[in-house]
Protein: Mitochondrial rRNA methyltransferase 1 homolog (S. cerevisiae)
Amino acid sequence: CLSSINMLLLEMRFPDQQQQHRRETCHRNKHLEIVFGVASCLLALMQSRRKPSRLFMKNSEGPQRDTVLRVCQESVKRGVQIQRVHQGLCLQASPLGFITEEKTITSHEVKNHRALWLVLDGVQDPMNLGAILRSAYFLGVDRIASSIHNSCPLTPTVSKATGHGGVKAEEGWQVVGTVGLEECSPEFTVMPCSDFKMSRPTLLLMGGEGDGLSPELSQMCDVLLTIPPRRNLHPGVESLSVSVATGMFIQISLFTFRRQVLNV
Structure:
């Protein structure tokens, strides 16, 4: 009895000439990337922001996970060539680019008083950026903006959007910056994040590893937040990673807003 994936492979009918053309195109194009992992491959296919070329999947005759079968089905729908390999699942596809703010703003977002946009300034580590994006999506952030320069590119480890967040300050949005305790200075007023009350559409600015927020962005902020430690800290562990801190700031901001709404 043929497995579901084997049956899918038999249903694919690429003419020999078309297959040869696909192989030559893949070999010629050195700019293709490899998206790895079942969830990442499925998202890449479903969102249609990358141009998929080939799907590589583990050579196994045993039962396959439903998500793996789903990836194969989506590949077949899009005419993507499936090849058997001996390690896991990955998708060869075109690079993922940024989306500009001007093309994607909706009237709903403009009127959404609970809107929270996350602005990343100089986040360079792809693992940090990937963790930030996942937390932001899970916790309910509406949009994510990133500076194109001096930041991690949208590699297969990372994905999402960009925009020009500074314009929002002129539209009545609250601009909130974040700093570590070691970055606090008399020049700026800094409050514990637990004291912050999100009362209107908000831009949450997060600085990158090491340097934090740029001085230009810090001066734009209505308020700067920090996460106070709950103990005396040893040297070398005085701060959280940017991905952990971002998740905490997002949760606190949205939690305080929802609590205010419930108390009205």
Notes: Residues 113 and 200 are 5 Å apart (CA to CA).
